[in-house]
């Protein structure tokens, strides 16, 4: 396989985000481990653990603070468990054929991170030489991250220090990769520097919370496809239709390398906490768009609790347990993940097939096929709340779909 050197085992995998704090009443690694057999049976492959480091106390937000305000890159939050607990989790997951990646926050730390005293020169300072709260700005909004301070990547000593901290978790706990928070706020050159060293220890799977194509050149296997999440929402709100999927994909596949993995999702911790629950965002359309996200292209993400129909926004700075009483979507997800694994056409990046959009004669119905060698999967989805008729590519293949109904055919 030419191009980006993905770990071969990632070719047919999915990813599951684990919010340890909210997953169980205990909010611990050990308590989460009781769910591993269930997740394995559901077909989960990669476990992405949200940050496990101790949370800063100084300028903390809420009672528990943000998991993304690290106090020590080389320690585990005592509320989550011990080093022995993490070792057991990784070993158990590996024995079950699953993989574990850690959330890594390289852009900023808590005000009371140990590096503030150990390496004060690694931090951004104002004109008076003082530490200051990090402010995030993008074209749509400004966010004041008052509980964290920014690291200064103009200092090349920081590059090695951060890389060494990441390497610790690979060497000691045998983790399989990292999900790198706000990766685009850190120089791409740093990520390339770090991954070159980390891959010498173990060939890792690297996920960037960002969308820049350049991140795929050397550093990252996969980036977020925020745009497709927004497109799905616009279709639900009737601002766009299924016809807008084709031009979106044309632009996407022109801009990104053919071997790039993209992560496709119906939610994640950011979207769920700050924007909308599954019910708020998709309503009755949830299953239809979940099928779309799992089969059109890319690696599908499932967030903690979605298999129990996560109909609320989980609190970020406070304790807020997931309700596991009803696992009403567990079978649904199991079938989707099995479909992906057993059909090469649906595999990730260059291991799978590009989608071929089919004409349906109806702007509310999307149809596509993916074909790789002797395997072909065809998907037809009604993305509206009304009954819709369709005719594939102006030939005799016609049909009618109920609201948000989908048909998947394996050939």
UniProtKB/TrEMBL annotation:
Entry-linked Gene3D superfamilies: Glycosidases
CDD domains reported in the protein's UniProt record: AmyAc_arch_bac_AmyA
InterPro entries attached to this UniProt entry: GH (IPR017853), GH13_cat_dom (IPR006047)
Start and end residues of each Glycosyl hydrolase family 13 catalytic domain: 4-340
Coiled coil: none
Gene Ontology BP terms: carbohydrate metabolic process
Taxonomic superkingdom: Bacteria
PANTHER family (UniProt xref): ALPHA-1,4-GLUCAN:MALTOSE-1-PHOSPHATE MALTOSYLTRANSFERASE (PTHR47786), GLYCOSYL HYDROLASE FAMILY 13 CATALYTIC DOMAIN-CONTAINING PROTEIN (PTHR47786:SF2)
Protein name per Swiss-Prot or TrEMBL: Alpha-amylase
Species name: Photobacterium rosenbergii
């Amino acid at each position: 396989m030419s191009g980006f050197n993905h770990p071969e085992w990632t070719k047919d995998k999915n990813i599951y985000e684990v919010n340890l704090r909210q997953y169980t009443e205990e909010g611990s690694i050990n308590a989460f481990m009781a769910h591993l057999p269930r997740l394995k049976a559901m077909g989960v492959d990669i476990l992405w653990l949200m940050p496990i480091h101790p949370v800063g106390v100084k300028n903390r937000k809420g009672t528990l603070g943000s998991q993304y305000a690290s106090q020590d890159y080389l320690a585990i939050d005592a509320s989550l468990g011990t080093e022995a607990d993490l070792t057991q989790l990784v070993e158990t997951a590996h024995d079950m054929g699953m993989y574990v990646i850690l959330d890594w926050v390289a852009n900023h730390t808590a005000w009371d991170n140990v590096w503030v005293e150990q390496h004060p020169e690694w931090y951004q300072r104002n004109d008076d030489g003082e530490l200051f709260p990090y402010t995030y700005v993008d074209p749509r909004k400004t966010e004041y991250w008052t509980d964290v301070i920014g690291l200064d990547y103009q200092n090349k000593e920081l590059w090695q220090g951060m890389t060494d901290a990441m390497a610790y978790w690979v060497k000691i706990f045998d983790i399989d990769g990292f999900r790198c928070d706000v990766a685009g706020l850190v120089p791409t050159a740093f990520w390339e520097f770090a991954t070159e060293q980390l891959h010498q220890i173990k060939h890792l799977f690297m996920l960037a919370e960002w969308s820049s194509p350049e991140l795929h050149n050397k550093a990252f296997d996969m980036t977020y496809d925020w745009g497709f999440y927004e497109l799905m929402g616009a279709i639900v709100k009737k601002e766009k239709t299924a016809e807008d999927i084709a031009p979106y994909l044309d632009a996407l596949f022109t801009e990104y390398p053919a071997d790039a993995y993209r992560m496709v999702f119906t939610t994640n911790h950011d979207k769920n906490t700050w924007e909308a629950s599954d019910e708020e965002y998709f309503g009755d359309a949830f299953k239809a768009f979940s099928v779309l996200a799992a089969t059109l292209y890319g690696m599908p993400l499932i967030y903690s609790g979605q298999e129990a129909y996560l109909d609320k926004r989980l609190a970020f700075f406070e304790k807020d347990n997931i309700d596991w009483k009803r696992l009403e979507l567990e079978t649904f997800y199991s079938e989707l993940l099995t479909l992906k694994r057993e059909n090469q056409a649906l595999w990730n990046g260059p291991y799978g097939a590009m989608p071929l959009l089919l004409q349906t004669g109806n702007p509310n119905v999307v149809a596509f096929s993916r074909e790789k060698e002797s395997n072909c999967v065809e998907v037809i989805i009604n993305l509206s709340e009304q009954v819709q008729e369709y005719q594939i590519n102006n030939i005799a293949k016609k049909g009618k779909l109920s609201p948000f109904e989908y048909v998947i055919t394996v050939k």
